[in-house]
Write a structure and sequence with these properties.
The complex is a heterodimer of chains A (about 180) and B (about 525). Chain A is an alpha+beta fold and about 180 residues long. Chain A is built from 8 helices and 4 strands. Chain A folds into 2 domains: about 100 residues, N-terminal domain of the delta subunit of the F1F0-ATP synthase (Peroxidase, domain 1, Orthogonal Bundle), CATH 1.10.520.20; about 70 residues, Glutaredoxin. Helices cover about 60% and strands about 15% of the residues of chain A. In chain A, strand 1, helix 7 and strand 2 form a beta-alpha-beta unit. With about 525 residues, chain B is α/β, with parallel strands linked by helices. The chains are: A alpha+beta (about 180), B alpha/beta (about 525). At the A-B interface, helix 1, helix 6, strand 4 and helix 8 of A face helix 1 and strand 1 of B. Strand 4 of chain A pairs antiparallel with strand 1 of chain B.
């Protein structure tokens, strides 16, 4: 069965309603919060997809978890998913919603990870490079990850430019082992 | 110990470093949404193609099988233990393939082409062959016209196999299916020594490691490993490796086929492959059909077996072949062939189950093995009545065709009368003659394991049987007679045997055969 249609449809419905009522920004922020919660707190996801916990209990738990952190529309979206027993599709629905949001903005969201904070002019240079390559405006989120050792890693949608030192060292090790 | 100059070491390292490409380019990536049971669902990778290899952070490789609206389903070609949700997945932009070359001969490898026999890396030039490849089109094929000698009397006489044919070996467990395949591989030694090798590929799917080790040992002992490659995926391997193993074998076979040589591939067995394909399909949530197999299990086997072919002998035509991988394009040659011997295991003789009927309908004939024959001492336990070869007859050598032409019908008549004769005791002389001859033919067709017969010897002994020259020899002495008869021929009439091996038969030959037969038979008569 092609389950992925389900999450696409829920995401489209939410995005459609949000744009009709002009609440795209709030909903998008809430969806980002939910996605982050799902990715960082495994227990949250486990709770959601647990079939033993009944719908009412899940609702009450959600009320306690998201106090004022998500908007009303997203909250009722969660309720709908729970009511229809489609909790397992929440994460992919969030991902699809964020895709729709980005497409509607016509802006490329890029994540720039570096070992140490990047100077502003370097970031700007990369930004112009992205804008030229993808022929679209770009917004860069900065992240710092010391595991990279040096260099940077740039992800635009599902395209990744890995210029981190750790990857080069890995390649070097593979070549020497051979 | 000689002193090491640190400067030299760093110089070597520097040179090595210079050779490594540190160029960075945009790569397509995705992230793992869900992983388990040898399957991963990946978000992203929006441009990935079906059947493409992907690489996970941990180094494990996967093959993309499902392209869905917002995610892709991959099978893992390794352990899923190190994989975590959120791991990065990279496209390799390469379709799943295997490195093939002459260096594989004599080796035991897995589905990915990695050696498993501890004899070090595969040597020699290697060519990349895709696992999944379209079969050659009609223009590049020609009808089966050369025999593939199995060395088994019952098969070469009544169910002959031609090069490029697909002949199914089907039967219950413990009926000698693998034995027939192994004997056939061993029999190719004669041609290997003559310099016209038939390269053999034995694909073991979902078997015990010890069983495969035994087979490798047997082949080694009979000097058959020199021209044989064993592809194995044991029962402990991931299901994906098991169902891709026959495709890896076919890719190796195609290398020989497309470079103008003959190859023989044994798939042992396709029922287990279908089971592992079912496992993967169900985990990928494809809808189940009959016996819970996915809808495309027929296509799985038909596209695999369709790759067996007898390629046109004209080089110019063969060079135009469709879907040839670039790596071997410059080596293309006509006249090659790939013969397939798929094996199917039935449960309690049920040939009308889903997979057996599918494969029977795909192949160009089948060899049925039956446990009651096996237990009553008829070995190989071939049920001649329902075994057929739809195309092999054209490839049979002339002498064999002439001698064994009526054998199949004779034996059918014998079995009918045999069943009938059990009711009454009074039989007329003609019926008795048929029964006597039939019983002796059954004895002639018996054959020990690992003792393939040369085609000329087969013809000589079958001549005695089909002409009814053995009526004087007691039934239980037929095998002894056969041994002496063939010994005498080899000792005194080697020229006759070489005439037969060329496929010629004439009055002088038949007269000599009859004479030697009568002389040998006379000894048994007096002894009895």
């Amino acid at each position: 069965m092609n389950d992925s249609k389900i999450s696409v449809r829920y995401a489209k419905a939410l995005f459609g309603l949000a744009s009709e009522q002009g609440k795209v920004e709030e909903v998008s922020a809430s969806i980002a919060t939910i996605r982050q919660t799902m990715e960082t707190v495994p227990a949250f996801k486990a709770m959601l997809i647990n079939p033993v916990i009944d719908t009412e209990a899940k609702r009450k738990l959600l009320d306690k978890i998201f106090v004022n952190t998500i908007d009303k529309m997203t909250r009722s979206f969660l309720d709908l998913l729970i009511k229809n027993k489609r909790e397992e599709f929440l994460l992919t629905a969030c991902l699809n919603f964020q895709n729709l949001y980005r497409e509607s903005k016509g802006v490329k969201w890029a994540t720039l990870t570096s070992a140490a904070p990047m100077p502003a002019d370097a970031v700007n240079e990369l930004k112009t490079m992205i804008e030229q390559k993808f022929k679209s405006k770009a917004e860069i989120t900065l992240k710092v990850d010391p595991l990279l050792i040096g260099g940077f890693m740039l992800q635009v949608d599902d395209q990744l430019l890995d210029a981190g030192l750790s990857v080069k060292l890995k390649k070097l090790r593979q070549a020497l082992v051979k | 110990m000689a002193g090491i100059n640190p400067a030299e070491v760093s110089e070597i390292l520097k040179k090595e470093l210079a050779g490594i490409s540190t160029e960075t380019e945009f790569e397509e990536v995705g992230s793992v949404l869900q992983v388990g049971d040898g399957i991963a669902r990946v978000y992203g990778l929006s441009n990935v193609q079906s059947n493409e290899m992907v690489e996970f952070d941990s180094g494990v490789k996967g093959i993309v099988l499902n392209l869905e609206e917002d995610n892709v389903g991959c099978v893992l070609l390794g352990s899923s233990e190190k994989l975590r949700e959120g791991d990065r997945v990279k496209r390799t932009k390469r379709i799943a393939s295997i490195q093939v070359g002459e260096g594989l001969l004599g080796r035991v490898i897995n589905t990915l082409g990695e050696p498993l026999d501890g004899k070090g890396p595969i040597t020699g030039e290697l060519y990349e062959m895709p696992l999944e490849r379209k079969a050659p089109g009609v223009i590049f094929r020609q009808p089966v016209d050369r025999p593939l000698q199995t060395g088994i009397k019952a098969i070469d006489a009544m169910i002959p196999i031609g090069r490029g044919q697909r002949e199914l070996i089907i039967g219950d467990r413990q009926t000698g299916k693998t034995a027939i395949a192994i004997d056939t591989i061993i029999n190719q030694k004669e041609f290997y020594e003559k310099g016209e090798p038939v390269y053999c590929i034995y694909v073991a799917i979902g078997q015990k490691g010890s069983t495969v080790a035994n087979i490798a040992k047997t082949l080694q002992e009979h000097g058959a490993m020199d021209y044989t490659i064993i592809v194995m995926s044991t029962a402990a391997d991931p299901a994906a490796l098991q169902f891709y193993a026959p495709f890896a074998g076919a890719a190796i076979g195609e290398f020989f086929r497309d470079t103008g040589r003959s190859a023989l591939i044994v798939y042992d067995d396709l029922s287990k492959q279908a089971v592992s394909y079912r496992e993967v399909s169900l985990l990928l949530r494809r809808p189940p059909g009959r016996e819970a197999y996915p809808g495309d299990v027929f296509y799985l086997h038909s596209r695999l077996l369709e790759r067996a072919a007898n390629i046109n002998t004209t080089d110019a035509v063969a060079k135009q072949m469709n879907d040839v991988p670039d790596s071997i394009r410059h080596l293309l040659k006509g006249g090659g062939s790939l013969t397939a011997l798929p094996i199917i295991e039935t449960q309690d003789g049920d040939v009308s189950a889903y997979i057996p009927t599918n494969v029977i309908s795909i192949t160009d004939g089948q060899i049925f093995l039956e446990s009651h024959l096996f237990n009553s001492g008829v070995r190989p336990a071939i049920n001649v009545g329902i075994s057929v070869s739809r195309v092999g007859g054209k490839a049979q050598i002339k002498a064999m065709k002439k001698v064994a032409g009526t054998l199949k019908i004779d034996q059918a008549e014998y079995r009918e009368l045999e069943a009938f004769s059990k009711f009454g005791s009074d039989l007329d002389a003609a019926t008795k003659a048929v029964l006597e001859k039939g019983a002796r033919n059954v004895e002639i067709l018996k054959q020990g394991q690992f003792t393939p017969y040369r085609v000329e010897n087969q013809i000589a002994i079958l001549y005695c049987g089909t002409k009814g020259l053995l009526s004087a020899v007691p039934r239980e002495k037929v095998q002894e007679f056969e041994r002496e008869f063939l010994e005498t021929l080899e000792r005194k009439h080697s020229d006759l045997l070489s005439t037969l091996s060329r496929g010629e038969i004439n009055d002088i030959v038949t007269q000599t055969l009859e004479q030697v037969c009568a002389e040998t038979a006379a000894r048994f008569k007096t002894n009895a």
